[in-house]
Write a structure and sequence with these properties.
The structure is a homodimer of 294-residue chains. With 294 residues, the first copy, chain A, is α/β, with parallel strands linked by helices. Chain A folds into 2 domains: 4-165, 3-Layer(aba) Sandwich (Rossmann fold); 176-290, Orthogonal Bundle (N-(1-d-carboxylethyl)-l-norvaline Dehydrogenase, domain 2). In chain A, 55% of the residues lie in helices and 14% in strands. Chain A has 14 helices and 9 strands. Chain A has a 6-stranded parallel beta sheet, with helices on both faces. In chain A, β8 (134-139), α8 and β9 form a beta-alpha-beta unit. The longest helix of chain A is centred in the middle third of the chain and has 29 residues, at 167-195. The interface between A and B is large, with 74 and 73 residues.
Amino acid sequence: MPEKIGFVGLGIMGQPMVGNLLKAGYKVFAYDVMEALVERAVAIGAVRAGNPGDAAARAEMVITMLPETSIVEKVILGEDGVLSGLQPGGIVVDMSTTSVLATRRIAAAVKELGRRMLDAPVSGGDVGAAEASLAIMVGGPAEAFQEVLPVFQKLGKNITHVGDSGSGQIAKACNQVVVALTIEAVAEALVLAKKSGADPAKIRQAMLGGFAQSRVLELHGRRMLERNFTPGGKVRLHKKDLEIVMEVAREVGAYMPGSAMMCQIWNSLSALGGLDWDHSSVVKAIEMLSNVEL
Amino acid sequence: MPEKIGFVGLGIMGQPMVGNLLKAGYKVFAYDVMEALVERAVAIGAVRAGNPGDAAARAEMVITMLPETSIVEKVILGEDGVLSGLQPGGIVVDMSTTSVLATRRIAAAVKELGRRMLDAPVSGGDVGAAEASLAIMVGGPAEAFQEVLPVFQKLGKNITHVGDSGSGQIAKACNQVVVALTIEAVAEALVLAKKSGADPAKIRQAMLGGFAQSRVLELHGRRMLERNFTPGGKVRLHKKDLEIVMEVAREVGAYMPGSAMMCQIWNSLSALGGLDWDHSSVVKAIEMLSNVEL
């Protein structure tokens, strides 16, 4: 069971996660390219690391929480990267949402050097990170999962070992497909209600009691009615996630007409200047082409 | 509070509903065009009615539970129809899923004759009907809703007065949009999982813990994995419901790209001979074009 953890990526997700690890008594060696973020982590008790390799060398495992695949690849495999410092038997846990194919490639490189890797993307956003209530979907060797499980339990609540390397990323990709399309469905339904002369708030209430129930209807349905598009989960990130899905679908040959449609809607929100809006703003695109506002 | 209820339409939904009303102590005057269905109702304690008008004349309110709009229209407004027998102040409660526009038209005709109408479509299928756990979405005059509420409470659990005439049907239409697209989303996600080499059952489990949670993921996700396409909710009926949605969308000017896509998928299931499969069989169309089975 690790006591010292390297942590690379101290942004909107990483920062509160580091806080939870420190609170649980772990020693955390923190690194980010942005010096201000490192200082903020040091202020709450983390130890400054000089680069990802340094964070890895001083710890038994390293968590990465980064915005995109190319950065994860560089941080783990690149110069002064995690692999340059990680001790034999050490574990790198990538909690970013990244490409399944790249994850498998990185995991193979890590294994070749006698280290281990878990892919462990999360669902729940910055609120879940702060409250340590993230859903964590994990791929990689079972015994590495068991070793890291106590750490995961300080960061989240629903922790599933899905399968081999890449499986965590596949689960996250699937999750993002379902969430995106459910948001779109709720948006269409509420706009239809409004255009038909009914009260969308009452319709949402009626639907929550039936088979249409979902967490998205509950939380994002309310957001749509309250016009609360402050993120939360940004369009920018969900858009990236669906682009990863389309990449995998192309590679493995999966027919995904709904996800393809969603990519078009994200493109539209990008055109509307909404990349930093909450992803429930899908309703804005549906409203705009229906010439109505909820 | 009514004690005598006319009931027209004794099929897969109507039959168990009549049973629940009889159990609750109501006197039920039952009619269906199929004599065998009337006999089955009489066998459990209902009184035979000669036609919809007769059922109405002997009761204080009449429930209709019929397969399509044109039949509802004929049963209520036609020769020997409900309106020909219903006493002044009587209430007709259409619990079928029918066109919003037709419902408003029928309700206006009913009102003109000094009777009252509620549209009260349900969600929950034959299981919900049998267990008296239907979600009931009600449109029409508030005081008629209050009078009928004790009867609704013998038939279902989540009972919402949504608004004016037609609002119940709008709520049901919205409900069917959300359910259809959520099924499609779950189907795409599980197929992607399978094609990517992960275990769809574990992916479903992981998703249930996060923001992708929904009743559809829980129940229909399991159906897809178990290949259990015995209805349940038939493709035939959900297809009809989305066609009603498209009709309303065209009329009021609502942009519904996801619902339009769903109609194409229902068309494909029809081509595959699946009109009487459970609606979770959406996954079969996604599987077929992905050349895989879960």
